[in-house]
Design brief:
The complex is a heterodimer of chains A (449) and B (543). By secondary structure, chain A is an alpha/beta fold. Chain A has 19 helices and 13 strands. The longest helix of chain A has 19 residues. At the A-B interface, strand 1, helix 1, helix 2, helix 3 and helix 4 of A face helix 3, strand 2, helix 5, helix 6 and helix 7 of B.
């Protein structure tokens, strides 16, 4: 598939995704082998547009980078990479160095793999290095997330003969590009732990490189996205034989029940344990969730809704608002760049909608989202009585706010980019996440009271 | 200089012999600059910076009714995602309420196009944007990939321009081409000068202007200035400086940021260009002088009473408006003094660390509010005078006495005295590690370590209140080292830790180890620590 001209891309490039992922790994330092500016350009987008994520250890302007200039473009940059890699190993305290190559390095034909191999062979007591291909022309930042984990699984993770029954890897929640990644991982780990599993999330404070190095021996990898993380999970299976399965990102009690049941079936968990867990969690969840029922009925908090986001959020949000919040999804816009075949397959996942075929569209461009909406809801005809899209709500990214205002709809930034909210520990997955999401959505509607 | 025959401006390395890495003695620096051989300096350890593509958005990204087309892979331009909303507010504050906000596209190049060339896609993209959005301008920002694979952007623009209504402005801003990211300003100004202003003139010539209209325009021109507002000038600054210039009877065009494309047709109808920052505007004002005979003022930034006064007089004198300036300044300064009165008492005897862009850091912030400036961090290097700051007032316990306490986990520092004995003593100015340090050194201490030959050429400490400068490397960081290289006045070495030349005496790595904890934080955290220290000493000073 040839890529199309794209308006305000809701992604950065592979290098940006790789950088964000490496920044989230414990005790791992990135080294960019790329043009001057790649680190800052993608760093700004991955941090500022992800709820002010912050640069983390050795991120942002501190990211070690070769800063390729004209002379390297002409004479090659391998020597510069070698120098930078050794200097970084000298200066930067980390247990793993991740060399990320950008467009320039890959176009001029630097053999970065050879440089990394040479370093690894002669590093003595210094930490090892891995290589990640992050050329922007190969893929976007979501691709970069997969490329990073793939390198990690292929080149860093140890092969182990014995599988550890109670351990799973949790994939499919890309740091930064899932703005709620931290909170989501915390909640998903809590849920899986409740089922008696030990969870390797890779990116949380209590994860470690040692734990990641043992990912291969996990019982399975759980990928909570139909697309992101799949390539990495497949690599882990290919190289180390670790099986994987994909689920949707669960938001809300119903979706989480389906998630838990799928995990239980895949891993053959004790059914008694699972039903006890679900009962306990749902009682706790509805005890709180029910509080909104009065206001919802009295002042009518039901809305028509347009959902805009990457495939995982488009699925999870539209399912939650339609099945658990009682809202009416009019249009679901998937912003991933996917080919026709994948479009058909992914549309099939929206079977919970009344007519997925007409309600689900794939659009990367904001102005085209507005056009697709106008096709479904043509502007008001003349006359006193007309069918209006009201009361309405748009669940999307910051880029959709102006349009939401223009159609008189409420708006909440959930999918990337989110530059108008600060996100620290908040997540939207699972039970606790759904309560937060309900609070956030309804608070927008009630803000004027 | 007239460089508009070129497709893009020269890099600042080429035009100004600027560099952004240096390690060595002041002598090396002066000699190197004279011989023009600083350009090859590099670091063994470097860290992420911006690029000229990113910085060019500081102007291009503000022009209303325009679209930016990033010709490259999908990540180039993604920095705009983090402030996509801000632009609308900024435009609205200037009264721009057009339909096109912050609009940008990416040609989204993939592996196939990298091999086969991407000119066709660029052509299609330009046609599609023109059809879809109908902008007045399309900036084509050329990234590293097309620059390396050899796309002929100018050729595409020539072919497509007749087919679209939008004016196409190519920006040659591939990141790898310059390490001095401020070249970005030249890139955008180059495109504006070459494509926008010239064209505006053509359309003006064709307009049916009556004799009376022409006469009135000429009269207006006699008392109008362009106020250049790139990047470091906020809306508040624009309003204030316009108010002051109006106050002496001048009309003001605020350009180029947030100026609608048609406003550029008036850019020649002025008597004077006013810039407050050479890093931003020198390329533009020089060209306006050369091409259209419009002189410029570019000497200070009007911050604080002293520099505002200087700035106003300079402009007023050009227009023979000295009396008006006197009246305005007297009234304004009286008002400022009254307003500062309550603060003066609190600030007296306090030590302040100023971190700002080169010109801002160089001029005393606040203007006479009683505090002293301990050090300054600036984004690039300029000749700056320095004088020792007097010691603490007697009987103020704890003040400036010892170093503030180390933060947990921080390795012990050498004392300032020990560092002074190092052979290359000037390096310490960039590496104060937070002691209220260099500013309190006595002159002979400050000179210690400077080779005799150079010492003789040092200027006597001037009476002006300008203490030591701690240069910094921010996003604008690599601006213009060349300007520093006035013999004897160019003693502020670049502080980017580990900024030794590759063939330098000590590797960047070991230089870095001397000065920092293990984390590879660059100047950011050094300044942070300075701030922390300053803050803690302020706290202690508070009775």
């Amino acid at each position: 598939m040839s890529l199309q001209l794209i308006e305000k891309p809701r992604v950065s490039c592979a290098l940006g995704g790789a950088l964000a992922t490496v920044n989230a790994l414990p005790r791992t330092a990135p080294i960019l082998h790329a043009s001057m500016g790649c680190g800052n350009m993608t760093g700004v987008s991955m941090q500022g547009a992800s709820g002010y994520l912050g640069s983390s250890y050795c991120g942002g302007n501190s990211t070690p980078a070769t800063g390729l200039g004209e002379s390297e473009v002409v004479f090659g940059g391998e020597q510069r990479l070698e120098e930078q890699l050794r200097a970084t190993a000298e200066i930067v305290d980390a247990d793993l160095y991740a060399v990320i190559t950008g467009c320039t390095a890959e176009l001029i034909g630097d053999d970065a793999r050879a440089v990394v191999r040479r370093y690894n062979q002669t590093r003595r007591e210094k930490a090892p290095a891995i290589l990640i291909s992050g050329a922007g022309f190969k893929g976007d930042s979501l691709w970069g997330y997969d490329a990073t984990l793939e390198s990690l699984f292929r080149d860093y993770v140890r092969s182990e003969a014995r599988r550890r029954a109670g351990v799973v890897n949790l994939l499919g929640v890309p740091p930064a590009q899932d703005v709620w990644w931290h909170g989501n991982l915390v909640e998903l780990r809590r849920i899986l732990s409740g089922l008696g599993l030990q969870v390797n999330t890779l990116f949380l404070p209590d994860d470690s490189l040692e734990r990641i190095a043992r990912s291969a021996s996990a019982r399975a990898s759980v990928v909570v996205s139909p697309t992101h993380g799949v390539k990495a999970a497949r690599a882990l299976q290919e190289v180390h034989g670790t099986p994987y399965f994909t689920t949707d990102l669960p938001i809300g009690a119903k979706a989480t029940r389906a998630f838990v049941q799928q995990v239980a079936a895949e891993l053959e968990l004790d059914s008694r344990l699972v039903s006890d867990f679900l009962q306990r969690e749902e009682r706790r969840y509805y005890h709180v969730f029910n509080r909104i029922a009065d206001a919802y009925a009295d002042i009518d908090l039901q809305r028509h809704v347009v959902v805009i986001g990457t495939i995982d959020y488009a699925l999870a949000l539209s399912r939650f608002v339609s099945q658990e919040l009682g809202w009416l999804p009019e249009l679901v816009v998937v912003t991933d760049q996917v080919d026709e075949r994948a479009k058909q397959e992914l549309t099939g996942r929206f079977s919970f909608l009344e007519s997925a075929a007409s309600q689900v569209v794939f659009e990367t461009d904001g102005s085209q989202i507005a056009r697709r909406f106008a096709e479904r809801w043509p502007g008001p005809s003349s006359g006193r009585y007309r069918r209006t899209f009201s009361p309405a709500f748009v669940l999307g990214s910051r880029l959709d706010r102006d349009w939401a205002e223009s159609i008189g709809a409420g708006h909440l930034s959930v999918s990337y980019p989110v530059s108008n909210r600060v996100v620290l520990g908040r997540g939207y997955a699972g039970y606790d996440g759904a309560l937060s999401l309900t609070e956030d959505i309804l608070s927008v509607i009630l803000a004027s009271r | 200089m007239n460089l508009l025959h070129r497709s893009g401006p020269p890099t600042r390395e080429e035009r100004l012999k600027a560099c952004n890495a240096f390690g060595g003695t002041a002598c090396d620096l002066v000699a190197g600059s004279k011989e023009g051989c600083l350009g090859s300096a590099n670091r063994v350890f470097s860290q992420a910076t911006g690029c000229q593509l990113m910085l060019s958005m500081a102007i291009a990204g503000t022009i209303p009714e325009s679209v930016i087309l990033f010709h490259g892979p999908v990540g180039c331009g993604s920095c705009l995602l983090s402030n996509a909303g801000l632009s609308k507010t900024n435009q609205a504050s200037r009264g721009n309420t057009g339909n096109i906000g912050y609009a940008w596209f990416s040609t989204n190049l993939d592996e196939v196009e990298v091999v086969s060339g991407a000119e066709a896609k660029l052509e299609e993209s330009l046609l599609e944007i023109d059809r879809r959005i109908h902008p007045q301008l399309i900036f084509v920002a050329c990234t590293c990939v097309p620059a390396i694979i050899g796309d002929d952007i100018d050729g595409v623009v020539r072919r497509i321009q007749p087919q679209v209504t939008a004016r196409i402005l190519p920006l040659e801003c591939a990141g790898f081409k310059t390490k001095i990211v401020a070249t970005a300003y030249d890139v955008v100004y180059h495109a504006i000068l070459k494509y926008l202003i010239t064209r505006a003139d053509e359309s003006q010539a064709l307009s049916t202007e009556s004799a009376a209209e022409r006469a009135s325009r000429a009269a207006r021109k006699q008392r109008t200035v362009n106020l250049l507002n790139v990047a470091s000038m906020s809306r508040g600054d624009e309003v204030e400086l316009t108010r002051l210039l109006n106050g002496i009877g001048l009309d003001v065009n605020v350009l180029p940021c947030f100026a609608a494309p048609d406003r550029f047709s008036r850019v020649r109808d002025v008597a004077l260009n006013v810039s407050i920052c050479a890093t931003h505007d020198d390329y533009f004002v020089e060209h306006m002088k050369e091409l259209y005979g419009i002189p410029y003022v570019l000497s200070t930034i009007p911050i604080g009473t002293r520099h505002t006064r200087k700035w106003l007089y300079e402009i007023a004198d050009f227009f023979h408006l000295r009396a008006e300036a006197d009246r305005l300044i007297a009234a304004e300064e009286a008002e400022v003094r009254t307003a500062l009165e309550p603060l003066t008492e609190n600030l007296r005897g306090k030590t302040v660390f100023v971190s700002a862009g080169e010109i801002r850091a160089g001029d005393p912030a606040g203007g006479g509010s009683g505090h002293e400036v301990a050090g300054r961090a600036c984004a690039s290097l300029r000749p700056l005078r320095r004088r020792p700051v007097p010691g603490p007032p007697p009987g103020a316990p704890g003040e400036r006495g010892g170093l503030p306490a180390l933060r947990a986990g921080e390795p012990a520092r050498p004392t300032p005295a020990r560092r002074l004995r190092r052979p290359h003593g000037w390096q310490r100015l960039g590496r104060q590690d937070g002691d209220p340090g260099a500013a309190h050194l006595r002159p002979q201490q400050q000179l210690h370590g400077v080779p005799g030959a150079l010492r003789g050429r040092l200027p006597a400490p001037p009476p002006a209140e300008e203490p030591a400068v701690l240069p910094d490397t921010g996003a604008h960081g690599q601006a213009s080292l060349s300007r520093v290289l006035v013999p004897g006045r160019s003693l502020h070495l670049h502080p980017r830790l580990g900024s030794e030349r590759r063939e330098g005496r000590r590797s960047g790595a070991s230089a870095y180890r001397h000065s920092s904890r293990n984390a590879a934080r660059s100047t950011g955290s050094v300044i942070e620590r300075l701030n922390t220290r300053t803050a803690s000493s302020l706290t202690r000073n508070t009775p």
